[in-house]
Amino acid sequence: MASFRKRGKSWTAEVWRKGVRQTATFRTKLAAQAWAAELETAIETGRHRTIPDRPFRDLLDRYGREVSAHKRGSRAELHRIAAIGRDPLGDIHLPDLRAEHFVAWRDRRLQVVSGAAVSRDWSIISHALKTARIEWGWIDTSPLEGLRRPRSNPPRKRVATPAELERMMIALGYDDETAPVTVGQRVGAAFLFAIETGMREGEIGKLLADHVDLEAAVASLPASICKNGDARQVPLSKRAIDILKHVRTVTKPDPRWFGMNPASICPLWTRARDRAMVDGLNFHDSRHMAITQLSQKLDVLSLARMVGHKDIRQLMTYYNPDAKDLAKRLG
């Protein structure tokens, strides 16, 4: 027999019949009743599939092995999956898994991390549950249905002032006259190069000698190093070419143009930022600076192609012109 309870603006249906016990949450009572009726019929006719009595952590682990491991950026996603599994949510067994468990998890996480971070974890959980429902038959419905997704934080608008940029280059030991023999110096060069090109730190770190044609002033990025999985060509300014030539004087034996592990860029940047006492400037903020600067030279479609955005609306996240400069252009 089914029972129904209203929780806030949603309805929870619970079915307990012939040893099968399942709950699900819906936006309306009508939807909850329809689900319960369908489930009871399936149980009576023997069409119902038994949900395995195993913890939610097992579902996440399987998703990590079979799905996340094959994604670009799998390392970061697997770390997130492991963290979710260590939460009390990971101990809940699948037959008992209900929306309230995810509400409690969401609210716990929001106390220690940003809404954007919780939203990223939410996406992983949502797809894991969908995969478990459609491909594995481990669940019948997603407990996330009807729940409020955490709001992402407003887009960052942080850019480096000329004074901050100078302090960062001093902290990293980079200047145009000194050979960049240390990795820290090349991180400084990479940031300046990122401002000229809009390339991400991972793309810069994985840039090989074969990817660059200095004579044509083009960097050809293969799909394997691009975040969205699409190859693209990046035109190089004179300043970008000068930086590349300067760096290559000391990295030539290495096939990587900047001669460093991409994973070392952000940690080295963060340590230098702390020494320079520059508050909150991330390496990725170079992308904001690049897109704002490049928007004055390129039309929107050319800019989207250069920086690797399939949807030109994404440019609004990074495009942060100064209103005074816009007023001058209108004048």
Index terms:
hpI Integrase, Chain A; 6 strands; DNA polymerase, domain 1; 3-stranded antiparallel sheet; elongated; 3 domains; 331 residues; 14 helices; 9% strand; mainly alpha
List the topology elements.
Elements: E1 2-7, E2 10-17, E3 20-26, H1 29-44, H2 56-66, H3 74-86, H4 99-110, H5 115-136, H6 162-172, H7 183-197, H8 201-205, E4 212-213, E5 218-221, E6 232-235, H9 238-251, H10 265-276, H11 285-294, H12 300-307, H13 315-318, H14 323-330
Antiparallel strand pairs: 1-2, 2-3, 4-5, 5-6
- In the CATH hierarchy, the architecture of the largest domain is Orthogonal Bundle
Rg calc: 25 Å
What is the arithmetic mean of pLDDT? 87
CATH first level of the largest domain: which class?
Mainly Alpha
Determine the structural class based on helices, strands and strand pairing. mainly alpha
Whole-number total of structural domains: 3
Query: Count the strands?
Result: 6
Strand content: 5-15%
Assign an overall shape: elongated
Describe what you observe in this structure.
- This protein has 331 residues and is mainly α.
- It folds into 3 domains: 1-48; 51-153, DNA polymerase, domain 1; 162-330, Intergrase catalytic core (hpI Integrase, Chain A, Orthogonal Bundle), CATH 1.10.443.10.
- 49% of the residues lie in helices and 9% in strands.
- It is built from 14 helices and 6 strands.
- The protein has helices spanning 29-44, 56-66, 74-86, 99-110, 115-136, 162-172, 183-197, 201-205, 238-251, 265-276, 285-294, 300-307, 315-318, 323-330, and strands at 2-7, 10-17, 20-26, 212-213, 218-221, 232-235.
- Strands 1-2-3 form a 3-stranded antiparallel beta sheet, with helices on one face. A 3-stranded antiparallel beta sheet has the order 4-5-6.
- The N and C termini lie far apart (73 Å).
